[in-house]
Amino acid sequence: MKRKEYDEQLKHLQNRLCKLQEWVKFKGLRVIVVFEGRDAAGKGGTIKAMTERVSPRVFRVVALPAPSDREKSQMYVQRYMAHFPAAGEVVIFDRSWYNRAGVERVMGFCTKQQHSGFLRVLPFVERVMVESGIILIKYWLEVGKEEQARRFEARINDPLRQWKLSPMDVDSWRRWDDYTRARDEMLQATDTTHAPWYIIRSDDKKTARLSCLAHFLSLIPHEDAPHQKVKLPRRSKHDKYDSEAGLLGRRFVPELHG
């Protein structure tokens, strides 16, 4: 897809997201969007496309670090629940409680019993979430083996993207088959009718982003929310305060000119 075509389609979808945002606020909806996938599958770019034109007060992105010792002693999903949406909010989890089914299972950060118990209980937990009124949407971004290798190499050689390549990413690089088995076990146990998984092939980043946004919009029926057009009032003609006088002698940042 050419850049111009992509930008036009993205702008159209982002306009629709802005309308959805007003509907979410108007109806007091509570929405959770989970993004999971292999390393370098394009989760960050897809989330950025979804959120860059909407309000961060409505669309909140949650990307939690490794759990603290205190959090490790809690019920596993407890630390995520603290970030669940209130009325009029969309919370996007850039990785989620499904860490236990992926990286924790593959890298040995949980026991086999903890992993199997998680997969057994989670469908019931998600049913409670949905029955409480939360709209739960789960996306798995699937990148091919060769494309993942290409993206890893690009990160290694690009100073602007080297921060995306963590020691954990490097260690997981050689565990493709282990992550495939973990993915399949996760889907088998948690792809339910009340909280299904939606798979997005992400070898083509542009297509993946557009497909995700269009699909997300289709899952939440919405209309134009009531909206009062904003009209700027006239400024007082009697205000003679010199707005520049108070800036004299202050420290200005030098202006760069191309």
Write up this protein.
The chain has ten helices and five strands, in the order αβαβααβααβαααβα. The protein has a five-stranded parallel beta sheet, sandwiched between helices. The protein starts with a helix and ends in a 39-residue tail after the last helix. The mean pLDDT is 94. It has 258 residues and is α/β, with parallel strands linked by helices. Helix content is 45%, strand content 12%.
SSE blueprint and pairings:
Blueprint (H helix, E strand, L loop, with lengths): L2 H25 L2 E8 L5 H9 L7 E4 L6 H4 L5 H4 L7 E6 L8 H5 L4 H20 L2 E9 L2 H13 L9 H6 L3 H15 L6 E5 L3 H15 L39
Parallel strand pairs: 1-3, 1-4, 2-3, 4-5
Helix pairs in contact: 1-10, 2-10, 6-9
Which stretches are low in confidence, meaning pLDDT under 50 for 5 or more residues running?
none
Largest sheet composition: 5 strands, parallel
Strand fraction band? 5-15%
Radius of gyration: 22 Å
CATH topology: Rossmann fold
Q: Give the CATH level 1 class.
A: Alpha Beta
- What is the CATH H-level superfamily? P-loop containing nucleotide triphosphate hydrolases
Helical element count?
Answer: 10
The CA-CA distance between the termini, in Å, is 31 Å
* Tally of individual domains: 1
Q: What structural class do you assign from the helix and strand content?
A: alpha/beta
**Silhouette:** globular
The order of strands across the largest sheet is 2-3-1-4-5
